[in-house]
Specification:
mainly alpha; two-stranded antiparallel ribbon; single chain
Length: about 450
């Protein structure tokens, strides 16, 4: 339909007649198909140009799909400004993988007006403070919360005024970029608090190097109630100070968390030698070691109840290093393809050796699965629970080629001698030659028997 014309006539003021011709588009009129096609072509062309630009800077197809699907606003941005922002990020020496991760997680850093404010302050402070990892964390935090470069310069001034070296400042900014939002008074209050609980002044810098997150904790609502809880649990002031000075992350404990860990330790059912090793450094330290391993298991997806259940059923895991536990969990999920929830059903997995026990068995089962030699699927329980002889007789002995995969049986392996050859001669009692009197007595004894 074409345009409609309406002529309106009415008498104006003072008798003048006014004629208005008004053209209206019908209510049912819609954009033509040619207009929609041109809009779609323009959108597609912009997407292609943006994709080509990001690919030149090393973005993979998967990261591009994730970025563009969640951030349609980038398609309306100026490509020249985006390229300029990418150049600034490269000039700040952010590694390639970190750059891609930063843009995908926080695309707001590509705003040219944002980066132009941060480029000079970050370059002026030097790499001793603003390392590439620090720069990445600061840019992400400031973009999310709208923190300006002024707060960064002010934070550097405060920390240097306290007497911290550049390595400590860099560590604090890298692990706790939220310090840009902490006021100067709060920073000084945290330092005074640490001195008040007995931390020497020369140890406060090391304390903040290990646990900079304390600068964001409330003294009244978090730190003081935590110390009061330790006192109520029966620990002395000297014990608490000594443990905090030894491991600053003790102050990361939530209220009631240490008591829950100690309750688990009191109900452990394990061999006495394992119990002695767990408590070898004191009750407080044993409870904190439980907390660290619970956090490790929860980081990979277990709920806290199941994490406590795993440690209660497999107390040996409390003695293992965190790195060893993480290697076993990553092998379980990435290589073996099991869910992290399987640990709640088979906690013994964390109690066996990865290189000598888990990997050889997995290789045998994986080979038999590909060959079609398994009648049914073998779960984690069937892989870990059988003894060495039972597993060998079930899955290795019927298939000679699995001998090479599984390795030699333990009983057939060469047993190293505990003592050098001939050592037994040193412990042999000395021999005494018989005397004439001894011979006479023996003869008389034998004659009496005849």
């Amino acid at each position: 339909m074409g345009l409609t014309t309406r002529i309106l006539r009415f008498s104006g003021f003072n008798g003048f007649k006014v004629t208005i011709m008004k053209q209206n588009r019908p209510f049912s009129a819609r954009p033509s198909s040619q207009t929609l096609v041109s809009v779609n072509q323009s959108h597609y062309r912009k997407r292609v140009l943006l994709t080509n630009l990001l690919q030149r800077y090393g973005f993979t197809p998967s990261s591009l799909q994730n970025l563009l699907s969640r951030n349609n606003a980038l398609l309306s941005s100026d490509l020249a400004k985006i390229e300029s922002s990418l150049g600034i990020l490269i000039a700040l020496k952010i590694p390639h993988k970190s750059l891609i991760s930063l843009v995908c997680d926080c695309p707001g850093v590509l705003r040219s007006e944002f980066l132009s404010k941060w480029q000079v302050p970050l370059l002026e402070c030097g790499e001793s403070v603003a390392s590439p990892s620090v720069v990445r964390n600061i840019l992400e935090h400031s973009s999310r919360f709208g923190v300006g470069p002024y707060r960064f310069s002010e934070c550097l001034r405060i920390l240097r005024g306290v007497g911290f070296c550049d390595s400590t400042i860099s560590r604090i900014l890298g692990l706790f970029p939220a310090i840009l939002m902490v006021k100067e008074l709060e920073i000084h209050r945290k330092i005074d608090f640490l001195g008040g609980i007995g931390i020497p002044r020369n140890s406060i810098e090391r304390f903040l190097y290990v646990f900079p997150e304390i600068l964001g904790l409330s003294i009244e609502n978090r730190l003081k109630p935590l110390l009061d809880e330790f006192l109520k649990m029966g620990f002395s002031v000297d014990d608490i100070r000594r443990e905090i000075e030894r491991e600053p992350r003790v102050l990361r404990l939530e209220l009631g968390e240490l008591s829950r860990c100690l309750e688990l330790l009191r109900t452990l059912k394990c061999r006495e030698v394992i119990r002695e090793r767990i408590f070898s450094e004191g009750v407080f330290r044993a409870g904190f070691e439980v907390k660290l391993r619970v956090d490790c298991l929860c980081k990979y997806g277990l709920i806290r109840r199941d994490a406590f259940k795993v440690l209660w059923k497999e107390p040996r895991a409390i003695l293992y290093e965190i790195e060893d536990i993480e290697k076993k969990i990553e092998f379980l999920t990435n290589t073996m393809g099991f869910s992290i929830s399987c640990l709640a059903e088979v906690p013994e997995y964390l109690g066996v050796n990865l290189q000598k026990h888990i990997i050889p068995r997995h290789n045998v089962i994986d080979y038999l699965r590909l060959k079609g030699g398994l009648g049914c699927d073998i779960g984690l329980k069937g892989l870990i629970k059988p003894s060495m002889n039972r597993f060998y007789n079930l899955y290795v002995k019927p298939y000679p080629e699995c001998e090479r995969i599984f390795g030699r049986r333990q009983e057939n392996a060469h047993v190293q001698k505990r003592h050098p050859a001939g050592l037994w001669k040193l412990f042999k009692p000395p021999s005494h030659p018989p005397t004439k009197e001894d011979v006479k007595n023996m003869k008389s004894f034998v004659e009496s028997l005849i």
